[in-house]
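Q: what sequence does this backbone want?
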């Protein structure tokens, strides 16, 4: 709501709302219709009050207040940009989550639609999230000579095979020398894993890509992907 006598009144209110919860709540109430409109234009659909989307947009509005300064120009334009980025980022993360299907129930498996996954490279902002971790993991896997998309075909299905893969992964994760050898040579050290775990060579070769991928997740900095394999880490520890 603009004041013709003071066109920057909203900007001043935004500055005053920093550190003043009462002023912040009043500003949110005053601009709630604007917040809903920004969310609706971003998601191209009607956004209901009290919906999850509105709450996310309000969080973004608050974030805008806390990071706004008067010299940035119009606060409402700045808030619209922050709301848009937050909502688009949320949509991208939801789509990414839909394509990572926990197995048993948290082992890693990947949905087979490669065409949909090709959009993971589109970035919204610098916020670290599951989309960006998938990008980072994809680059690591390329160095081993296979694609992120290959994980669908090589993920274990039978319980006996899953247990064998857990043993192999545990051997890598719990033995730094084996992990470092795998990293240095960009190969699964099949011979030493077979010797230490008794897992048949045939299983190690067939599920090599899957074993490498999960070991990299467990040993790397993948905070969003880790929950899908953390229980495996507990079960496969040797």
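A:
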């Amino acid at each position: 709501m603009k004041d013709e006598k003071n066109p920057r009144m909203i900007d001043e209110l935004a500055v005053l709302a920093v550190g003043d919860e009462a002023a912040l709540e009043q500003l949110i109430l005053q601009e709630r219709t604007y917040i809903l409109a920004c969310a609706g234009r971003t998601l191209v659909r009607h956004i209901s009050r009290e919906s999850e989307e509105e709450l996310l947009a309000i969080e973004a509005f608050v974030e805008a207040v806390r990071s706004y300064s008067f010299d940035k120009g119009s606060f409402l334009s700045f808030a619209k940009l922050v709301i848009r980025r937050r909502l688009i980022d949320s949509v991208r993360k939801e789509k990414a989550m839909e394509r990572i299907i926990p197995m048993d129930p948290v082992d890693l498996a990947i949905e087979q639609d490669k065409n949909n996954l090709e959009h993971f490279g589109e970035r919204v902002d610098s916020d670290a999230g599951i989309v960006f971790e998938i990008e980072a993991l994809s680059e690591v896997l390329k160095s081993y000579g296979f694609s992120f998309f290959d994980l669908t075909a090589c993920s274990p299905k039978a319980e006996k095979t899953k247990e064998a893969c857990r043993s192999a992964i545990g051997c890598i994760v719990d033995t730094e020398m084996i992990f470092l050898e795998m990293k240095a040579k960009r190969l699964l050290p099949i011979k030493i894993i077979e010797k230490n775990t008794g897992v048949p060579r045939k299983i190690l070769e067939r599920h090599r890509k899957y074993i490498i991928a999960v070991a990299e997740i467990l040993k790397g900095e993948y905070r969003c992907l880790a929950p899908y394999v953390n229980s495996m880490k507990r079960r496969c520890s040797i």
